[in-house]
Specification:
The complex is a heterodimer of chains A (590) and B (105).
Chain A (H helix, E strand, L loop, with lengths): L4 E5 L3 H12 L3 E5 L11 E4 L2 E4 L10 H11 L3 E5 L2 E5 L2 E5 L3 H25 L8 H9 L1 H16 L8 H7 L5 H9 L11 E5 L4 H13 L3 E3 L2 E9 L2 E9 L2 E6 L2 E4 L3 H7 E2 L4 H8 L3 E11 L9 E4 L8 E4 L14 E9 L4 H4 L2 H14 L8 E14 L5 H13 L4 E3 L2 H4 L5 H15 L13 H16 L2 H8 L4 H25 L23 H50 L4
Parallel strand pairs in A: 1-2, 1-13, 2-9, 6-16, 10-14, 13-20
Antiparallel strand pairs in A: 3-4, 5-8, 6-7, 10-11, 11-12, 15-18, 15-19, 16-17, 17-18
Chain B lengths: L1 H16 L6 H26 L22 H33 L1
Classes of the chains: A alpha/beta (590), B mainly alpha (105).
Chain lengths: 590, 105
C-alpha cells in the first residue's frame, strides 16, 4: 500500500505527536524543524551538564490517550513531583496555592483587615463600569487583593498596565461555572481549581527526554525528522497545498505534499503561502501578536537555595516575573548535587528594551535582582547562560478573536491543511492539548472528523456539563432549586401564623366547654402574654389575633434567616469558584 | 461563547428568582415525626426522673389528647397524637404557604 506523503511543520510536542501517530497509522511523515533540536517552545536546553526546561512544564492531563502515550514513552523515567510554588510580594513568600493561615501570617493582622475592608468596600461601592481588567478584578476581590496578587504579575506578563487590559477579555478568560454546577461541586466536594494540581509527572531530565523519545519512535517507524530545516514557501492550487519549499544547510529543497500538518505560528504560515493569501487574511495575521521571554540561567555553587520549583515574583521593584529552580523539578537536572541551577524569567516582547538588552546587561540585571530578593548572593554564581524564547505566548488582545476567525476561515478552505499546537492555533494550549491536536490531525487524515479547534475550547465546559449530568442523576436540578430557592417570607409567616392561631383558638374553645377539675394544668397562663385572654369562647377570639401575630413574626424571622444563610452560602461557593478560576487564569503563563 | 453565558444566566435565574415550594407530604411527615418524638421523649424523661408530681405541666396535653398520661404507656399514645397533630400542621402549613406563593406569583 502506498504510504501517504505527510509533511509536518515543527518538531514541538504537537508536531512530534503528529509524526508518532502517523507512523503508528503506517504513514511516512517528514517533520521539518527550523531549530537544531526538537521540543519547540517546550524544549530542554543543556549547558555544562545542567538541564534547563524552557518555561517549566508540568505533565498533567485529563486525556487518557495522552496520559498513556506519556507513560509508554517515559516508563520508569517519569517522576511524580509534589508541587511547591510560592508568590513573592513585599519581601514575603506566600504559599501558592494560597493557604489562609500563611496568607494571614504574611499579610499581618492590619493588612488582612484592610483586605477585608477593601473587599467589603468593593461590594458596597463597586466601580460602576467594568471596562478594564483592574475594575473587573477589583469589583470581585477588592482593590487591595487586586494590587497584591493580580496587578504586578499581570502587568509583567503582558507588558501593559492593567488599566489598558479590557474587562471583557478578563471575563472571557475567567469563565465562571454555572451556579448550579458550582453548588453541585461544593456539595459533592468537587470544587477545585482546574490547574492548581498538587502533584504532576516530570521526565527525570526534563521534557526534552520525551521529545527525544518521540523522535526515536518516529524514526523507528519510518518517519523522518529534519532539523535546521526552515519552510519558506507553500505552493497551493485548487484548495490544496501542493508542495513545500524549505532550506536545509544552505540548500533549497522542494517536496510534494499530500497532507500538511503545521505547528508553525499561524501568522508565519499565512505568509508562507504562494500564491499569497488575500489581503484581509494578511492583515488579520498582523493583528495577532505574541509575548516572548528571556531566561537568565545561573548555576549557583550551593546545594540548595529554596524548596519551591518556581516562585512568582509579584514585587514591582524587580523586573523578573518568575524564578525556576530546576533542581527541585528533578535532582537529575544538575550534574552535581552541590550545584543548583535557577532560571530568572523575564516576560517581554520581541524588540523591546529587555529583548534587545545585551547579554552582559541581562546577566547583571538578573544577578542584582536575585540578590535583592535574598535568594542568592552574587558571589555564589558560578556560571550563567541566557536563553531567548520568541513567540512564547499568543496574546489574546482585543481583536485576536476576529483576526483568528478570518485566518481560520481561510485555512478551512484548504482540503489538506491542518494547524496544530499552541502557536499553530494561536491558543493557550498546554502540552497535552497540543499533543492531542497533533494526534487528532493525523486521525482526520485517516478518515476521522475531529474538530481540532474544540480541543481546550469546550473541554472545561463539556467536563462541567458531564459532571453536572452525573450529579443531576443523584440530585435532580428541581430538588437543588427547591433546596436553594428563596423562601417566600410573607407566605411562610402567614402559614405559621394561621396554623398556630387555629391551634390556640381550638384549644381554648375545647377547654372552655370542658369542665376542668381544680389542680389540672390549663391554658389560663396564656393571659400572661395575651392581654384580656381568658379560657372562654371570648378568650378564644382574643387569642386568635395574638397567636397569629406571634406565629407570623416567628415564621417571617425563620424564612428571613433561612434565606440569609442560603444567600451567604451561595455567595461563598460562588466567590470560591471565581477565585479558583482567576487562579487558573494566572497559571496560563507556564 | 454566548451559549455558555446563557447557561450561566439561566442557572442564576432559576436559583435566585425561583421561589421555594414546600412539599406538604414531606413537611407533614417531618413535623409529625418531630412532634411525636418530642412528646415521646419529654414524657419518658419525666417518667424516668420520677418525683411526687410527675409531669405537672405536661399533663395539660391530656386535656386535648384523650387517653394521654405522663406514663410510659402514655408516651406511646402521646407519640401517636403528636405525630397526627404534627403531620396535619405540616401539611396545612405547606398548603397555605404554597397557595400564598401561587397567589403572589
Amino acid at each position: 500500500m502506498k504510504k501517504k506523503n505527510i509533511v509536518v511543520i515543527g518538531a514541538g510536542p504537537a508536531g512530534l505527536t503528529a509524526a508518532d501517530e502517523a507512523v503508528k497509522q503506517n504513514m511516512a511523515p517528514l517533520v521539518l524543524e527550523r531549530a537544531d533540536k526538537v521540543g519547540g517552545i517546550a524544549r530542554t536546553e543543556s549547558y555544562k551538564g545542567c538541564y534547563f526546561d524552557v518555561g517549566g512544564h508540568r505533565f498533567f492531563t485529563k486525556f487518557e490517550k495522552i496520559a498513556t502515550l506519556w507513560q509508554d514513552l517515559m516508563g520508569e523515567d517519569f517522576l511524580k513531583v509534589p508541587r511547591q510554588s510560592s508568590i513573592y510580594f513585599n519581601n514575603r513568600f506566600y504559599n501558592y496555592p494560597l493557604r489562609p493561615l500563611n496568607a494571614l501570617f504574611n499579610l499581618g493582622i492590619r493588612e488582612s483587615c484592610m483586605v477585608m475592608f477593601s473587599f467589603a468596600g468593593s461590594k458596597i461601592r463597586p466601580f460602576p463600569k467594568e471596562e478594564t481588567f483592574e475594575e473587573w478584578v477589583s469589583n470581585r476581590f477588592g482593590q487591595r487583593l487586586y494590587k497584591i496578587f493580580f496587578k504586578t504579575y499581570t502587568e509583567k506578563v503582558w507588558g501593559i498596565p492593567c488599566k489598558q487590559i479590557r474587562a471583557d477579555w478578563a471575563a472571557q478568560r475567567i469563565k465562571g461555572l454555572s451556579l448550579t454546577t458550582t453548588i453541585y461541586n461544593a456539595l459533592f466536594g468537587f470544587q477545585h481549581s482546574k490547574t492548581l494540581i498538587d502533584e504532576f509527572d516530570y521526565p527525570i531530565k526534563g521534557p526534552g527526554m520525551m521529545w527525544e523519545r518521540l523522535l526515536e519512535t518516529t524514526k523507528e517507524g519510518g518517519g523522518k525528522v529534519s532539523l535546521n530545516s526552515e519552510v519558506i514557501s507553500l505552493n497551493h492550487e485548487n484548495g490544496r497545498i501542493t508542495d513545500a519549499t524549505y532550506t536545509h544547510q544552505g540548500k533549497r529543497y522542494k517536496i510534494a505534499v499530500e497532507h500538511l500538518v503545521s505547528s508553525a505560528p499561524i501568522t508565519a504560515l499565512v505568509t508562507m503561502l504562494k500564491p499569497q493569501a488575500p489581503k484581509e487574511v494578511i492583515e488579520a495575521s498582523r493583528g495577532l501578536s505574541y509575548r516572548a521571554f528571556i531566561i537568565v540561567i545561573f548555576i549557583i555553587d550551593k546545594p540548595s537555595l529554596f524548596s519551591e520549583q518556581w516562585i512568582y515574583i509579584h514585587s514591582p521593584n524587580v523586573r523578573v516575573g518568575r524564578i525556576q529552580n530546576f533542581k527541585n523539578w528533578s535532582a537529575a537536572m544538575v550534574p552535581d548535587s552541590n550545584l543548583t541551577s535557577v532560571g530568572m524569567e523575564y516576560f517581554c516582547s520581541e524588540g523591546d528594551d529587555l529583548w534587545t538588552m545585551p547579554e552582559t546587561e541581562l546577566v547583571g540585571l538578573a544577578a542584582r535582582e536575585l540578590a535583592e530578593l535574598g535568594l542568592a548572593e552574587t558571589d555564589d554564581i558560578a556560571d550563567e547562560f541566557v536563553l531567548r524564547q520568541p513567540k512564547a505566548y499568543p496574546v489574546y488582545n482585543q481583536n485576536y478573536l476576529n483576526c483568528l476567525g478570518i485566518i481560520q476561515e481561510f485555512i478551512a478552505g484548504f482540503k489538506n491543511l491542518q494547524t496544530i499546537g499552541r502557536n499553530g492555533m494561536h491558543r493557550y494550549n498546554n502540552m497535552d492539548h497540543s499533543m492531542l491536536t497533533g494526534m487528532m490531525a493525523i486521525q482526520n487524515i485517516t478518515g476521522c472528523d475531529h474538530n481540532l479547534w474544540l480541543v481546550n475550547e469546550e473541554e472545561e465546559y463539556l467536563e462541567d456539563e458531564k459532571n453536572k449530568k452525573k450529579l443531576q442523576q443523584l440530585i435532580p436540578e428541581r430538588l437543588l432549586i427547591g433546596l436553594f430557592g428563596r423562601m417566600d417570607k410573607l407566605g411562610f409567616a402567614t402559614a405559621i401564623g394561621t396554623i398556630s392561631a387555629l391551634y390556640v383558638f381550638i384549644a381554648t374553645l375545647w377547654m372552655s366547654i370542658k369542665s376542668i377539675p381544680p389542680g389540672i394544668p390549663n391554658l389560663t397562663f396564656l393571659g400572661e402574654y395575651f392581654a384580656g385572654y381568658t379560657m372562654t369562647v371570648n378568650g378564644a377570639f382574643i387569642a386568635f389575633p395574638y397567636t397569629f401575630f406571634y406565629g407570623f413574626l416567628l415564621g417571617w424571622m425563620f424564612a428571613y434567616i433561612r434565606n440569609f444563610i442560603i444567600t451567604l452560602y451561595l455567595f461563598y461557593v460562588r466567590k470560591k469558584s471565581e477565585f479558583l478560576s482567576i487562579k487558573d487564569f494566572m497559571e496560563f503563563f507556564r | 461563547m454566548n451559549h455558555k453565558n446563557n447557561i450561566v444566566e439561566t442557572d442564576k435565574d432559576k436559583l435566585f428568582r425561583g421561589v421555594l415550594l414546600l412539599n406538604s407530604g414531606i413537611l407533614g411527615l417531618s413535623l409529625g415525626i418531630l412532634f411525636g418524638l418530642v412528646i415521646f421523649i419529654a414524657t419518658n424523661w419525666l417518667v424516668i426522673k420520677g418525683g411526687d408530681h410527675v409531669g405537672s405541666h405536661l399533663r395539660l396535653l391530656g386535656q386535648f389528647f384523650i387517653g394521654y398520661k405522663v406514663t410510659f404507656l402514655g408516651s406511646f399514645i402521646g407519640f401517636a397524637y403528636g405525630f397526627a397533630a404534627g403531620t396535619l400542621s405540616g401539611a396545612l402549613i405547606a398548603w397555605i404557604y404554597n397557595k400564598f406563593v401561587e397567589f403572589r406569583n
